[in-house]
Specification:
Length: 206
């Protein structure tokens, strides 16, 4: 009888452990530096469907989760545009993705995205994460949140995750440009010194 009880307890512990681990390290845990990012198909503001595979000549991508309504994201808009103008021609275009639930944030719906992109003159794709399926795969938590990818034979490898720079309040007061430093390192074949930083911004609305 004692043996049966012990066996029952062991089975219960193993079952609970398996359930807990599934919750903790499930598919929504997000990418780490060194992981390979899966491709996606998302609607752009011009009505087309955009995938990373569309960019045949790209060396990698500056994927930015951003939106219209977050003050932090708005503060970084010009800097995101500057990143695209500087690095798209060098093989690292910006791909912006709007991850928020538009029922919670109607100011981030597709029509609002179109208006914002036109007003600001965005030169990069601005995609809607319809159904909020992509940002959890990446593990994005904030707007803005950056994932720098590099094309390799095995796929698009994550090389940097975090903030754009170290001063969201004032672009002129920035002392460390994290994303620029990381892209420059990849272009020059150097190791990225800071591959992880803390993203500063608004929480993604679910």
């Amino acid at each position: 009888m004692k043996t049966i009880k012990t066996l029952f307890v062991l089975v219960a512990v193993v079952t609970l452990s398996a359930f807990t681990n599934a919750k903790t390290i499930g598919p929504n845990h997000g990418y780490h530096v060194g992981d390979f990012a899966t491709d996606f198909k998302l609607e752009n503001i011009d009505g087309t469907t955009v995938s990373l595979s569309n960019f045949k000549d790209a060396k990698g991508f500056i994927v930015v989760f951003t939106c219209n309504t977050c003050p932090y994201a708005v503060a970084y808009e010009d800097r995101v545009e500057a990143l695209n103008k500087k690095y798209a021609k060098k093989g690292y275009p910006v791909i912006a993705i709007m991850p928020n639930n538009t029922n919670v944030k109607p100011g981030d719906n597709m029509e609002a995205m179109k208006r914002r992109a036109k007003a600001k003159g965005f030169t990069f794709p601005y995609l809607m994460d319809e159904g909020q399926k992509i940002y959890p795969q990446y593990g994005a938590k904030k707007t803005p949140h950056v994932y720098l990818l590099q094309k390799t034979k095995k796929g698009n490898q994550v090389k940097y995750i975090g903030a754009i720079d170290d001063n969201y309040k004032d672009a002129s007061a920035v002392t460390t440009k994290y994303v620029e430093n990381a892209v420059d390192a990849l272009l020059e074949g150097r190791e990225i010194k800071e591959s992880n930083t803390r993203a500063i911004g608004c929480s993604i609305k679910v």
